[in-house]
TrEMBL record:
EC number, UniProt record: 1.6.5.11
Stretches assigned to the NADH:ubiquinone oxidoreductase-like 20kDa subunit domain: 22-132
Keywords: 4Fe-4S, Iron, Iron-sulfur, Metal-binding, Oxidoreductase
Protein name: NADH-quinone oxidoreductase subunit NuoB
Pfam families: Oxidored_q6
Cofactor: [4Fe-4S] cluster
Oxidoreductase keyword on record: yes
GO molecular function (one): oxidoreductase activity
Entry-linked InterPro entries: Complex_I_20kDa-like (IPR052375), NADH_UbQ_OxRdtase-like_20kDa (IPR006137)
Family: Belongs to the complex I 20 kDa subunit family.
Length: 156
């Protein structure tokens, strides 16, 4: 039973938020979810449908005015410890949309970003590497929380 408990604590769930992207990065994220060559489940990760079950959040898009409040609300629903990953150049700097009138980004003005995966769109290999780095950060935070005696905390 110890083996199963240990395995479960090393299997983070991923949740994707589209903050106004062109869907190029979302297509590449789908590649890492459904094509066996780049399958994130090999890393012990699995996509989930609810932010309340997520451990790692993958955010695509340049963060538009229209969706900013919803993105922040959903991000706050993810329990601590969580890791935030900016997928693509748009959440990092605004990308080609940077000078647009509806762009609120970059994302790190509003949220703490733990991992940046640059590219337009990033290649599946880069996404896999970024998810692996995010998983390592998440595992360190889980261990730190265990040492402090803190269980997962749901905000709001």
């Amino acid at each position: 039973m110890s083996f199963l408990n240990n395995l479960a604590t090393k299997s983070p769930w991923l949740f994707r938020i589209n903050a106004g992207s062109c869907n190029g990065c979302d297509v590449e994220l789908a590649t890492t979810a459904f094509i066996p060559r780049f399958d994130v489940e090999r890393l012990g990760c699995k996509y989930c449908g609810s932010p309340r079950h997520a451990d790692i959040v993958l955010i695509t898009g340049p963060l538009t005015i229209r969706i900013k409040d919803q993105v922040l609300k959903v991000w706050n629903e993810i329990p601590e410890p969580k890791v935030t990953v900016a997928v693509g150049i748009c959440p990092i700097s605004g990308g080609v949309f940077k000078e647009g009138h509806s762009i609120q980004g970059p994302l790190d003005k509003y949220l703490p970003i733990d991992v940046n995966i640059p590219g337009c769109p990033p290649r599946p290999q880069a996404i896999m590497e970024g998810v692996l780095l995010a998983k390592e950060i998440w595992l360190k935070r889980i261990e730190e929380a265990k040492r402090k005696g803190v269980r997962r905390v749901q905000i709001s």
